[in-house]
Amino acid sequence: MSDLVKDVAFNAEGYMIDAKQWSREIAEFLAKLEGIEVLTPDHWKIIDFCRTTGLASGKAPTLRQITVGTGISTKDLFALFPKGPAKKVAKIAGLGKPEGCV
């Protein structure tokens, strides 16, 4: 594990326990763990939306909330965050697991 996240607490599924510990550098590290080598401006648009929404509501946004809130299609979300975009973006954004995700 990187020195970057050595003091960051994660639950058994790999989600950060305290969203206040998050940083853009941690997001880049977590993205690499999720198989995303480079975070593009579209990735950041989604991550920033999810952080703003998630911190305000206390829970990670659903896939539908992300597509409506960002204007990015479900197809494009799956291209940016393959195999479960709502869960991946929540993890990278330092939020808990979205409700309704198995």
Commentary on this structure:
By secondary structure, the protein is mostly helical. It has one domain. The protein has 5 helices and no strands. The N and C termini lie far apart (26 Å). The mean pLDDT is 92.
What's this model, at a glance?
With 102 residues, the protein is mainly alpha-helical.
Topology record:
Elements: H1 24-33, H2 41-57, H3 63-70, H4 74-80, H5 85-92
Counting structural domains, the number is 1
Order of helices and strands: HHHHH
The average pLDDT is: 92
Beta-strand residue fraction: under 5%
The end-to-end span amounts to 26 Å
Instruction: Figure out the total of helices.
Output: 5
Low-confidence stretches: none
Question: Structural class, from helix and strand content?
Answer: mainly alpha
Tell me the number of strands: 0
In one word, what is the shape?
A: globular
Round the Cα radius of gyration to an integer and report it: 12 Å
Largest sheet: none
Helix content: 40-55%
Summarize this structure as a short list of keywords or feature phrases.
102 residues, mainly alpha, 49% helix, globular
